[in-house]
Amino acid sequence: MDSLTQIVLGATVSVAVAGRRIGPRKAALLGAGLGTLPDLDVLVRHGDAVSNFILHRGWSHSLLVHAAVTPLIAEGVMRAFNGLREHRVTAYLTVLLCLATHALLDSMTVYGTRLLWPLDDTPFGIGSIFIIDPLYTLPLAIAAVWAVLRRNWSAKVGRVTAVTLALSTLYLGWSLVAQQIADGKARTALAEAGLKADKLLATPMPFNTLFWRAIAIDGSHYYNIYQPLLAGTDAARIHMHPRLAENGPCLATIPSGAAVAAFSKGYYRTFTDESGLRIADLRMGVTPSFVFDFRVAAPEGDRWKAIVPERIRNARSAPGDIGWLFDGMSGGAMIRPAEAASLFDPAAPLLAALPETPSCG
């Protein structure tokens, strides 16, 4: 999730656990700091743009690492706050929960989070909530700011904090339910259109859980299926796009390209521009404005050579996206202007098939 959300989540968790001992103001400030710690890994450079991308939310987001560093941090916290010096369990719980809730919340987004590193390097990414969701963040922000304004603990502070955390947790639960509904509707829409998919992932559109996009992979093509949760499958809009660059290389010969393909769990697109081969993670951003888009190879005669990967910065939205987003959130069936030309038409011939996996021979 975004930094603000992690700050206010950490602050609220800390108030719930340690507020009675050190007061809501100090607890909120402590939690805000602890909630920020895992994301300091962005300051670490791993050598190139692709490595920085796939290794974010790595060891610093591991629940095992959190458990290991909790005693060290908690002992320092006990010395910094008089109210915790005789309450070691409270100090340990505060530190562990602020760190762990950060990682667990991140794993609810589609960006991979290595929760079990180093025992398991799998990047977990459920994808049921967008990285910025005001309905999740705003109640936590209100509770955190209110706690900062309160020097002394009271039963009211405890109730407000508990209710806020309960509501935010329920919202996460709702996002999981909504994801299953969107997944089912997208699969039905595909079947009704006579299409198939090797794999499908439903993720919410920005800032809400009422308008969803499902990415369906079908060999050399992918489909963006836009489905309002408040409407039936007749409101779904399916857009068909080529997924693999024509005459592109075998990704196994391009290490950075293979790394992006693996991290995206197969939800990637390759294409060429005037400077070479690019690969984008389809899960983040919307066609053609991908958040993580890298140039990874350059032509060399009739072959491709791997290059130091370069991240391509794309516009975050296209003309008409805001109106289209609000229409979808309200259950409308508006066609996205930026993808109008790719709207699937059952009567039109399919895009020419490209090889699923370019030859590595």
Per the principal axes of the C-alpha atoms, what is the gross shape?
globular
Which series of helices and strands comes N to C? HHHHHHHEEEEHEEEEEEH
Average pLDDT across residues? 94
N-to-C CA distance:
42 Å
Strand order of the largest sheet: 1-2-3-4
Radius of gyration, Cα only, in angstroms? 23 Å
- Largest sheet properties: 4 strands, antiparallel
- What is the count of helical runs? 9
The count of β-strands is 10
pLDDT below 50 for ≥5 consecutive residues: which ranges? none
Overall SS class: alpha+beta
Notes on the structure:
The chain is of the alpha+beta class and about 350 residues long. The protein has two domains: about 5-155, no CATH class; about 180-340, no CATH class. The protein is built from nine helices and ten strands. The strands form three sheets. The chain has a four-stranded antiparallel beta sheet. The protein has a four-stranded antiparallel beta sheet with strand order 5-6-9-10, covered by helices on one side. β5 (about 270-275) and β6 (about 275-280) form a beta hairpin. α1 (about 5-20) packs antiparallel against α2 (about 25-35) and α2 (about 25-35) packs across α6. The protein is globular. It starts with a helix and ends in a 32-residue tail after the last helix.
